[in-house]
Amino acid sequence: MHFQWYPGHMTKAKRMMQEDIKLIDLVIELVDARIPMSSRNPDIDELGKNKARLILLNKSDLAEDRQNDAWAAYFKEKGYSVVKVNSKKGGGIKSIHAVIQEACKEKIERDRKRGILNRPVRAMVVGIPNVGKSTFINALAGKACAKTGNKPGVTKGKQWIRLNKNVELLDTPGILWPKFEDQTVGLRLAFIGSIKDEILNTEELAAEMIQFMKKYYRGVLAEKYAIIESDDPYQCLADIAKSRHCLLRGNELDMGKAAILLVDDFRSGRLGRITLEFPEDYK
Fold first, then answer.
1. Cα–Cα distance, 165 to 118 (Å, whole number)
2. Which backbone phi and psi does 30 adopt, to 5 degrees?
3. C-alpha–C-alpha distance, residues 166 and 156, integer Å
């Protein structure tokens, strides 16, 4: 499978972010805790250089906890502030305000020396599609002020949101980058739903997921679907179809339906807490 998805509005969004960055003190970057590196747009480091940086490991409740800690240590070592969050349920949100003030303390101190008091920290919230930016902003603001949806590309324009007298947020659309150098990155993004499902071959995606699970989380699929884990991923998918009664007319197995079921079970955490990449892969 070859992965690529870069609709026109993303080029426009990137240009807009480049213009707005001069107004910004802090870049808050959301990544998916299951794929913290693959869900980082490489353009963001260039965009946010010389700015205070905060990385939020979002959806941390779906990833393995010890891997979340390993990733937090990895990014802190590189000079980022890091918080593990679960925007949907509000986990980690309360600590964000203090972390923002801490990350921007040099800027606040500079303002104070120049006699500028109480100027709010201006933060740009960035991240790839479907990583949970709008859900995070609504959780932080305590009200629904950003559109949310569990499909990529819901936020099309930018909007400023005043959280309180200390912090203003600029919400930005999710942007990918024009070319994935490594197709494994594309595959991981497809797993978490950051690439439109309509352009993917779901059965191939499910087969790749089965291969990964067999390597790193052996026994999970056997237990979840009451099957014997075959070495052939397509046989495994057929067994899941059988076990879950995914059938077409004439009792033929509906492999497509079984594939969607498996991918959905992974995305929603019904397979348990699963991390798809590990810090040691990047050392």
1. 8
2. -90, 130
3. 26
| Backbone region of residue 221 per phi and psi (left: phi > 0; alpha: psi in -120 to 50; beta: other values) | alpha
Q: Tens digits of per-residue pLDDT, 44-69?
A: 888 898 899 999 999 999 999 999 99
How far is the CA of 65 from the CAs of 33, 71, 271, 275, 280, in angstroms?
Answer: 10, 10, 15, 9, 16
> Do 103 and 51 touch, CB atoms closer than 8 A?
no
Distance, CA of 129 to chain centre: 8
Where does 26-133 show beta strands of DSSP type E? 26-32, 52-58, 81-84, 121-126
User: Which of 3.40.50.300, 3.40.50.620, 3.40.710.10, 3.90.1200.10 is the CATH number of 8-171?
Assistant: 3.40.50.300
The structural architecture, per CATH, of the domain 201-282 is Orthogonal Bundle (1.10)
Residue 173: name the closest of 147, 191, 144, 195 by CA: 147
Whole-model pTM: value is 0.88
Decide: 59 and 32 in contact? Cβ < 8 Å: yes
Written as six digits, the tokens of 179 are 């070319």
Rounded Cα distance between 144 and 164, Å, is: 15
DSSP assignments along 269-281, one per residue: TTT----S--GGG
Taking the domains of the chain in order of start, what are their residue ranges? 8-171, 201-282
22: Cβ contacts below 8 Å, ≥ 6 apart: none
User: In degrees rounded to 5, what are phi and psi of residue 148?
Assistant: -125, 155
User: Are 28 and 125 in contact, with CB atoms under 8 Å apart?
Assistant: yes
Nearest to 137 by CA among 128, 122, 147: 147
Per residue in 114-127, pLDDT tens? Answer: 999 888 999 999 99
Contact between 54 and 27 (Cβ < 8 Å): yes
Is beta strand 159-162 parallel, antiparallel or unpaired with respect to 167-171?
antiparallel
Cα distances from 7 to residues 76, 178, 222, in angstroms, run 33, 9, 38
